[in-house]
Amino acid sequence: MIDLYTWTTPNGRKVSIMLEECGLPYRTHAINIGKGDQFAPEFVAINPNSKIPAIMDPDGPDGKPISLMESGAILVYLAGKTGKFLPQAVRGRYDALQWLMFQMGGVGPMFGQVHHFLRAAKEPVPYAIERYVNETRRLYSVLDRQLAGHEWLAGGEYTIADMATYPWVARYEWHKTDLNDFPGVKRWFDKLSRRPAVQRGMAVPKV
Ligand SMILES: N[C@@H](CCC(=O)N[C@@H](CS)C(=O)NCC(=O)O)C(=O)O
Hints:
By secondary structure, the chain is an alpha+beta fold. The protein is 54% helix and 9% strand. It contains eight helices and four strands. The protein has a four-stranded mixed beta sheet, covered by helices on one side. Strand 3 and strand 4 form a beta hairpin. The radius of gyration is 17 Å and the shape is globular. The relative contact order is 0.16. Glutathione binds next to helix 1.
């Protein structure tokens, strides 16, 4: 059984959604990042970067245990392990990977900065708020253009790129975005929200 180390945040929920979609059995360990659990030596041994999510799979590629950090790498690993949600065809595979990297390098870090400056910063920093709100809006426009013409981010197939992006868009109220301004994103978001595996993954961890 895979051990999942996670918390109630978008990066963690990408992985619980994938585990639920694949029907892989897993055990959840809640790492309370508000209380500093991510710095405990037992967790640092699994993720030297002290961030959730991380997994430990006792049945790794060579039959030996493997631990992994970085949500994007974990999603690619689980797709490789199960043969699901990352197209086999080379063109489709790279298409999905480019949208996964777009999430990892753009959507996650930029939306995260908006959350920080709107909700956590000790004092208002108008320059930072404007910078990251504008970039978030620009990223939504890119997603919207793609989703206006395609059912899923990587075209015709539901992939790990959609699973990675969904939990960040689910925080649209935190980054003060009206999804009605982005009808392609809204249609995609509503459809994903109805998937039972997505609903179960979004409820992890139970705290
Ligand atoms: N690039 C990493 C980012 C992970 C990350 O930032 N995790 C946050 C929660 S969403 C965290 O653990 N923060 C705790 C901290 O920074 O101390 C990934 O995608 O796995």
